[in-house]
Design goal:
The protein contains 17 helices and 19 strands. It is an alpha/beta fold. The longest helix is centred in the first third of the chain and has 15 residues, at 95-109.
Length: 496
């Protein structure tokens, strides 16, 4: 089923299918850019034939609506001021699956802050079920639904997508440690499909590849949680452990170790090893882990993003190629960005190459401020930090690090400290070392050990809802970004 973005009258949908010539019916679906299988139409027809209500109560249903980026689909959805109605339509009853689906629907719809009435219709035997407040799943008479239809106060929306913010449903193992450990989250459709295959896989090396925001770390940790119920596991983090790691270790008894302690696995003797941020691992460290997995006949899981590097040397590690070359390895490439909303994603892409800024049509969640002096920027950032903005600073270096030191805010977390984490509102500084080359791509002067451009990429891709840039002593950079934005969005106005 392809999403019907506009609400529809169920009588009209069924009548169009049954009464009109096939060519005209297909034309109607094409007009609405909507597809639905004949079987699904027949099931909807069977469902509404049970309802003894005035015809006007069968209008304003969303059919096959999907939450953007999450790909969570609802068969029938009707939004009201007093409550939301949701009906899932099935051919046959698989009770536990049907109950779990309604529990997922409850999770996603709860963000709208309304009462929820959730049902499942089974076309095979014309039966009807409801999800109770305590998660119970029980048969119910159609009359209950009829009364709800008649009493619902409709709420009209020009675009249902505006009600749902994908970032509201994302749970980070580090920033939402309690929710994650308690299982108060769901995987996206792609994550769940990969997980189902991985659980049954006989491969010794499982590779999870994906760009920032595609959910590879969540999937890695979800798999670790799954296997930890029956096996000894260890997670290796390529970097210093953050606060979330420590909470998981101390409060929930996880076994997460930093890469510098990798040889601890010889004492911990895990049956499954999970490695996060594999792209930053020294080749010698990766070789050690691979050999350990082979020698002990255990299984390794590796989360990796080749582009998410922080030092000049990491560009040449080729850890992904090494993993893919292994016998008995299997690659799962996550493709859908779920952390960063589409508007932020378009801005980030345009930021790294101005030619793509033409796709940034909404700048409501983007702010850019210019300062001629770093101290002014630091004072401004201090105030924003108090307002809940997460400052992500550059990681300093002891040798030849003057270029980076000149654009450090000396507040918040640094680029290395936010690996794998996510924040609603992110503030990042752009110093004079940045410029745009002849291909309109972002570039840096004076890169030495840590790569400012990659640290900048790491920082802005941590944002879920808002990005603020402080451009300091770099009028050329500011001019080019503003011109690129202005060309595509005349309504743009830098604001707080």
């Amino acid at each position: 089923m392809k999403i019907l973005r506009k609400p529809v009258d169920l009588n009209s949908l069924v009548s169009s299918y049954k009464d009109l010539p096939a060519e005209i019916y297909e034309g109607i679906l094409s007009f609405f850019n909507f597809t639905i299988r004949n079987e699904e139409i027949n099931q909807i027809s069977a469902f509404i034939s049970n309802l003894n209500v005035e015809d006007r109560h069968l209008g304003y249903f969303y059919v096959g609506y999907k939450i953007p980026q999450i790909d969570k689909e609802f068969d029938l959805l009707r939004i009201g001021e007093n409550y939301i109605l949701n009906v899932e339509i099935k051919s046959i009853l698989k009770e536990e699956d049907a109950r779990n689906q309604l529990l997922q629907n409850k999770y996603y719809l709860s963000s709208l802050g309304k009462k929820l009435k959730l049902f499942t219709y089974i076309s095979e035997d014309n039966s009807f079920y409801q999800l109770g407040d305590e998660g119970t799943f029980y048969p119910i008479d159609f009359a209950v639904f009829e009364k709800l239809l008649e009493s619902q106060k409709l709420e009209h929306h020009t675009n249902l997508d505006d009600l749902f913010d994908p970032s509201d449903y994302l749970v980070s193992p580090f920033n939402d440690s309690e929710r994650f450990n308690n299982g108060s989250y769901f995987l996206t459709k792609q994550q769940q499909e990969f997980k189902d295959v991985i659980i049954k896989s006989s491969s010794q090396f499982i590779i999870l590849e994906g760009l920032p925001g595609t959910g590879k770390t969540l999937l890695l940790y979800d798999l670790a949680k799954e296997f930890s119920e029956t096996h000894e596991i260890v997670i290796i983090h390529t970097g210093v452990l953050n606060t979330g790691h420590l909470i998981l270790n101390q409060q929930y008894k996880w076994r997460i170790i930093p890469i510098k302690e990798v040889k601890e696995i010889e004492h911990l003797k895990p049956q499954f090893i999970f490695v996060d941020e594999t792209q930053r691992m020294y080749p010698s460290q990766l070789k050690y882990i691979i050999e350990y997995i082979k020698e002990n006949n255990i299984v390794g899981f590796f989360s990796i993003d080749p582009k998410q590097i922080l030092s000049i040397h990491e560009r040449n590690y080729n850890n992904l190629s090494k993993l893919k070359s292994l016998k008995n390895s299997e690659l799962f490439k996550l493709s859908k960005k779920i952390r960063t909303n589409k508007e932020l994603g378009a801005f980030i892409k345009g930021l790294f190459n101005l030619d793509y800024m033409k796709y940034c049509n909404n700048t409501d969640n983007i702010s850019i401020h210019y300062f001629g002096d770093i101290n002014q920027a630091r004072g401004f950032a201090e105030g924003l930090e108090r307002e809940g903005w997460q400052i992500i600073d550059y990681t300093g270096q002891n040798f030849n690090g003057q270029a980076i030191q000149k654009m450090m805010l000396n507040r918040g977390l640094n680029a290395h400290g936010v690996l794998g984490q996510e924040f609603d509102k992110v503030l990042v500084l752009v110093g004079s070392t940045f410029y745009y080359n002849d291909q309109n791509s972002i570039a840096v002067r004076n890169a030495n050990y840590y790569d400012p451009e990659r640290m900048f990429y790491q920082s802005v891709t941590r944002a879920r809802k808002q990005i603020m840039l402080l451009v300091v002593n770099n009028p050329e950079f500011m001019t080019k970004v503003i011109k690129a934005l202005k060309n595509t969005n005349e309504k743009y106005s830098p604001s707080r």
